[in-house]
Amino acid sequence: MVCHGEVYRLRPEARRLTGYYLSLSAGGAAGGIFVALLAPLIFPHYFELHVGLFLVVVLVLIVLASEGTAFLRRGAGRWAWVPLTLILAAYGISLFQTAAASLSYTKLTVRDFYGVLKVTEEAPADPQRHKLTLLHGGTIHGMQYLAPELRNTPTTYYTSGSGVGRILATPSPLHGRKVAAVGLGTGTLAAWGRKGDEFHFYEINDNVVRIAQENFHYLRDTQAKIELRMGDARLTLEKLPPQSYDVIILDAFSSDAIPVHLLTLEAFATYRKHLRPGGVIAVHISNRYLDLEPVVMRAAEQGKLSALYFNNSGEVPEDADAEDAYSSDWILLSDDPATLRQTSLAKHGTVPQPPAAGIGPWTDERSDLLHVLVAEEDSFIAWLQNL
């Protein structure tokens, strides 16, 4: 608001507008270059936000000082600079402390094109609680206890009480399962691997792979054969011959940014090509801001797939550790209804409700985020959705 206000106040007469708008464009380009290229090299986190907030206050003081008629340049008003300078210093210290707090318990921070990856370590008095957590921005992408007896336990969104945990806990075929997972995180899903299983992880970020391999043990400890396939999952799958997967796990939607192209009808057609008859597509739809259930159900309708919805509100079976579990929402899809009628699945899942009439399927040409916003009690968003 302050910067736009100053840009408006500095607008020149018409004959100088060309240079004025050229300057605005150059400033925007310089800011974009700084944030995209230089800031990741300088800052381990999004500290340019804190610097920017501080500089805005400095800008306000400069503007006040430059105004010839400003109160702060006349008489007793000049003494007001003393408390203003002290307030500026206190504000800067507060911003610094806020920035430093974001690195609390941090063992490793990596910043790249995809954002900030942070590994935090918590070592309480109880050695059983010693754990590492991977965060991408503000979203947890996996956690592992370091105690040997707990190290290979599936945690967070992948516990035995979650939708994906229940399908991976079902008895596997004699030849072992072939599983594809879109999104690696810490590799927690590998904890479900048994001897003879084959897990293919599709991951676009090299740093995620490096962190999972060097800081966490899931990929190292699993009994399953692990294969990492780098690149965009959908583009990679489109180039491969049919893989005949028993389970395809879509786990790329819990962050703030949604890769829409992984939820379109064309994307599900690609998944179907790689799924064996009777196989399962497990879609992780946990999200703070979007209700993705209607989108997945529209794709299920179009593909004539049966569906089961699993909401795990942090609960786990009696023999599991409750602290391991996070609330999660999963939808399991299959072209064979009998697959989802298995007792181990049916008694814990529910048949999803048909999506509202105003929500259509997402395609590569059309997607609609507005109608899947989590409205709850927000009357403004509800009003927008009803337009």
Plain-language structure description:
With 387 residues, this protein is α/β, with parallel strands linked by helices. The chain has helices at 2-9, 17-42, 48-66, 81-101, 163-169, 206-215, 218-221, 233-239, 265-273, 293-303, 337-340, 343-346, 379-385; strands at residues 106-112, 115-122, 131-136, 139-145, 178-182, 198-203, 225-230, 245-250, 275-284, 306-313, 327-334. The protein folds into two domains: 2-101, no CATH class; 148-383, Vaccinia Virus protein VP39 (Rossmann fold, 3-Layer(aba) Sandwich). The protein has 13 helices and eleven strands. The strands form two sheets. A seven-stranded mixed β-sheet has the order 7-6-5-8-9-11-10, with helices on both faces. α9 (265-273) links the parallel β8 and β9. α3 (48-66) runs antiparallel to α4. The two termini are 29 Å apart.
How do the helices and strands line up, and which of them pair or pack?
Layout: H1 2-9, H2 17-42, H3 48-66, H4 81-101, E1 106-112, E2 115-122, E3 131-136, E4 139-145, H5 163-169, E5 178-182, E6 198-203, H6 206-215, H7 218-221, E7 225-230, H8 233-239, E8 245-250, H9 265-273, E9 275-284, H10 293-303, E10 306-313, E11 327-334, H11 337-340, H12 343-346, H13 379-385
Parallel strand pairs: 5-6, 5-8, 6-7, 8-9
Antiparallel strand pairs: 1-2, 2-3, 3-4, 9-11, 10-11
